[in-house]
């Protein structure tokens, strides 16, 4: 009943959902909303010592210039690259929505499946773009400009990387036959986890502290990748790095 009520509420904005502007505005709005709390922490941390205790790299400092550079780069990618593609997709495959919401178990299963598939796709993409020097220099190096991560570095990447990850995230719900509500929730969760990965903070409620047995890497896992470059290629979970021998921890 809860999912149906939520879906009915969303369908009330049917005209917005069918707009060619919706996908880009939705993803950008969600992204900036999730970045905002960490931006506030970055601005307060130089003045409040207790905030700095949660920073992974406590000597790092995030300036307004760094934030603006990342934000401008992200806006540029959305306007110049993502928006034209979403318009083409809008013409090619107009949005259609069923009136019935998905079941709770099916929704959870599909979101987890999309997340695991994305984690695998990005691990392979990421590994290749570090192991092949030409791929790293040409496409991925820009994302490693900052060796100490902060939330707005999440989407500080070149066009090829932005489009590749957008493609993985967009195609997985289609491959798995997900309900549109499931697709939206997967996008929201995927954006949150990506921002959290880059936030630069190890907070008590962080996802990697909630998932047991070290199965999820989180911000410390990915921050170490930006610092060392040659480890921790999976974005979220740790099993692929364990299997390939590329998992490293701060204590290593």
Quick recap:
With 252 residues, the chain is mainly α. It is 65% helix and 0% strand.
Report what the structure shows:
It holds the Pfam family FA_hydroxylase. One of its GO terms (biological process) is lipid biosynthetic process. Keywords: Membrane, Transmembrane, Transmembrane helix. Residues 111-246 form the Fatty acid hydroxylase domain. There is one protein chain. The protein is an all-alpha fold and 252 residues long. It contains twelve helices and no strands. The protein is globular and about 50 Å long.
Give the helix/strand class.
mainly alpha
**Terminal Cα separation, in Å?**
48 Å
Please bin the fraction of helical residues.
55-70%
Q: Please describe the biggest sheet, giving its number of strands, its sense, and whether it closes into a barrel.
A: none
SS elements, strand count: 0
What's the layout of helices and strands?
Layout: H1 2-11, H2 14-17, H3 22-44, H4 49-52, H5 64-92, H6 104-131, H7 133-140, H8 159-175, H9 180-198, H10 207-210, H11 218-228, H12 239-244
Helix pairs in contact: 3-5, 3-9, 6-7, 6-8, 6-9, 9-11
């Amino acid at each position: 009943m809860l999912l149906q009520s939520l879906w009915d509420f969303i369908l009330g904005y049917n005209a917005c959902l069918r707009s060619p502007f919706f996908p880009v505005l939705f993803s950008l709005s969600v992204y900036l909303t999730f970045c905002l709390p960490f931006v506030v922490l970055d601005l307060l941390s130089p003045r409040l010592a207790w905030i700095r205790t949660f920073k992974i790299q406590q000597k790092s400092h995030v300036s307004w210039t760094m934030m603006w550079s990342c934000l401008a780069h992200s806006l540029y990618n959305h306007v110049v690259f993502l928006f034209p593609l979403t318009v083409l997709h809008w013409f090619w495959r107009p949005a259609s929505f069923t009136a019935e919401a998905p079941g709770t178990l099916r929704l959870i299963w599909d979101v987890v499946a999309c997340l695991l598939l994305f984690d695998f796709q990005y691990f392979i993409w990421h590994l290749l773009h570090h192991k092949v020097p030409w791929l790293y220099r040409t496409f991925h190096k820009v994302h490693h400009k900052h060796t100490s991560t902060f939330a707005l570095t999440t989407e500080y990447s070149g066009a090829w990387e932005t489009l590749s990850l957008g493609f993985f995230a967009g195609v997985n719900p289609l491959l798995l036959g997900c309900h549109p509500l499931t697709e939206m929730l997967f996008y929201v969760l995927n954006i949150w986890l990506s921002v959290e990965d880059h936030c630069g903070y190890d907070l008590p409620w962080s996802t990697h502290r909630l998932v047991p047995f070290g199965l999820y890497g989180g911000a410390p896992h990915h921050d170490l990748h930006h610092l060392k470059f040659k480890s921790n290629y999976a974005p979220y979970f740790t099993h692929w790095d364990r299997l390939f021998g590329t998992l490293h921890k701060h204590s290593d």
